[in-house]
Design brief:
Order of helices and strands: HHHEEEHHHHE
Structural class: mainly alpha
Largest sheet: 2 strands, antiparallel
CATH class of the largest domain: Mainly Alpha
CATH superfamily of the largest domain: Cytochrome c oxidase, subunit III, four-helix bundle
Distance between the termini: 74 Å
Number of strands: 4
Helix content: 55-70%
CATH architecture of the largest domain: Up-down Bundle
CATH topology of the largest domain: Four Helix Bundle (Hemerythrin (Met), subunit A)
Shape: globular
Number of domains: 2
Length: 296
């Protein structure tokens, strides 16, 4: 019969959302450039905002719409049987490559952290002008990653608690995965509920930790590297929590089966990746990075 598929691959129908996503990404990045270069307010003149909030807002709304509609289409394709075993295999390859790219993203932050820590350059900061001048090679200049007298967070207080929370969440998402494989839908839902609750608890504790931290974002290399690395990890925890929440919603709709559950499996892989990154962050940044400094 003409038009009948004689292969295991899924040929996508024409869709407008890749185009919308590309345009929205360009609009978003353009809006961010305008945002980072807008004229700040002074004592005599107000801030010149121009049209960048509109550009940035349109980009964000377009990206959110693209994510929602594109993922919705993937769910529909999975439910109508388009995701054959071959298609599922290739989707797993894609998820593995995506996580590999995320690993390299965090490698960059670890690289900068260790570079600042092992090879610090003594700097002089002029509060009046905001200028930073290198003192490298000058007599009496001392290179310190954590400035003398600066307090850091105690790694064996809230950071250790958050470590235990994420380790527990790794066990609960594994519980949910094994329940799904063995056809226990109640265990799947309970495991996902527990994992999502632990993820929200982790984010709440980290938000409190930031509010109580004895140092701000700028001022020295340690603070900047600390907030960039842990902040991006916190963002990934939020994304992973949303990922799992969507899986929980789909589990109530009865979408996942022991033989076809890539949507859940991808979320579980992503969550385990987030867990592993945190272990490295805890050891490298909280414990080793603040070693010898006074705890807050």
């Amino acid at each position: 019969m003409a038009g009948t598929a004689n292969h295991d691959y899924h040929i996508l129908e024409p869709d407008i959302w890749p185009l919308v996503g590309s345009i929205s990404a360009l609009t978003f990045t353009t809006g961010m450039v305008f945002f980072m270069h807008h004229t700040p307010a002074t004592e005599t003149e107000p801030a010149q905002f121009g049209f960048w909030p509109i550009v940035l807002g349109l980009g964000i709304m377009g990206l959110i719409a693209t994510f929602f509609m594109w993922f919705r289409n993937i769910v529909i394709e999975a439910q109508r049987g388009d995701h054959t075993p071959v298609v599922q295999l290739h989707m797993r390859y894609g998820m593995i490559l995506f996580i590999a790219s995320e690993v390299m993203f965090f490698v960059g932050w670890f690289w900068s952290f260790f570079d600042f820590a092992l090879f610090p350059t003594p700097l002089s900061f002029d509060e009046a002008t905001g200028a930073t001048t290198s003192l490298f090679g000058q007599a009496g200049a001392v290179a310190q990653f954590v400035p003398e007298g600066m307090k850091v967070l105690d790694p064996f207080a809230l950071p250790l608690l958050n470590t235990l929370i994420l380790l527990c969440s790794g066990t609960t998402v594994t519980w949910a995965h094994h329940s799904l494989i063995h056809g226990d839908r109640q265990g799947l839902k309970q495991g996902l509920w527990a994992t999502i609750a632990l993820g929200l608890l982790f984010s709440s504790i980290q938000a409190y930790e930031y509010s109580a931290a004895p140092f701000g974002f700028g001022g020295n290399s340690y603070a900047s590297a600390f907030y960039m690395a842990t902040g991006f990890h916190g963002f990934h925890v939020i994304i992973g929590t949303i990922f799992l929440a969507v899986g929980l919603y789909r589990s109530y709709l009865g979408h996942f089966t022991p033989r076809q559950h890539f949507g859940f499996e991808a979320a579980a892989w992503y969550w385990h990746f987030v867990d592993v990154v945190w272990l490295f962050l805890f050891v490298a940044i909280y414990v080793w990075g603040g070693w010898g400094a006074e705890y807050h």
